[in-house]
Amino acid sequence: MNHSLPSAPLPFLSGLSAHWGWLLARGISAILFGVIALAWPRWTVLALALVWGAYAIVDGAFALIYGARGGGTRRWSYIFVGLIGVIAGFVAFFWPNETAIILVMIIGFWALAIGVFEIIYAFQYRRAIAHPWAVGLSGLLSAVVGFFIVMFPGAGALSLIWLIAAYAFVYGFLMIVAALQLRRWRNTHPAMA
């Protein structure tokens, strides 16, 4: 079986593999957020807003840094997703007393936007990257969860906490898998890294 990649995407892949750690950090931070959400499921919406706001700011910052440091030809999409995350995090952080519906809608649109960008990324680079299924699956998961949250914003805060925690665990796991596959590709192709 020939695992060679086309020559055109290699500069992109080698640049992407150099930043596998950012993907790993995003995955770990998502799992940590899930642990925190599960550990205290009866937190008020205020606490959820603060914890989620902090997570969205950190995740957005990682995406911004990755985009700024050379996220390939689609670095603008990482910068856009990073800005959405940071802005949504600050909105949740500075206006935590707003209604639960607003927070639910912010989380829903944020997850939907991330999902769409990750699905597009997975399709565009499916032949050039070693992990398109992990990124595409995490994007589909984000889009489905975001769509569900946007369509049913009146769900109870406790249900939302459990849903978001489960999403964070699965999303974090998939990002870690993608990061480790990029790292493995980089280690098996040292001349291109």
Automatic annotation (TrEMBL):
Keyword rRNA processing: no
UniProt cross-references to InterPro entries, sorted A to Z: Acid_resist_chaperone_HdeD, DUF308_memb
Superkingdom field: Bacteria
Annotated transmembrane regions: 20-40, 46-66, 78-95, 101-121, 133-154, 160-182
Keyword terms of this UniProt record: Membrane, Transmembrane, Transmembrane helix
Keyword Cell inner membrane on entry: no
Pfam families: DUF308
The protein's name in its UniProt record: HdeD family acid-resistance protein
Species in which this protein is naturally found: Paraburkholderia denitrificans
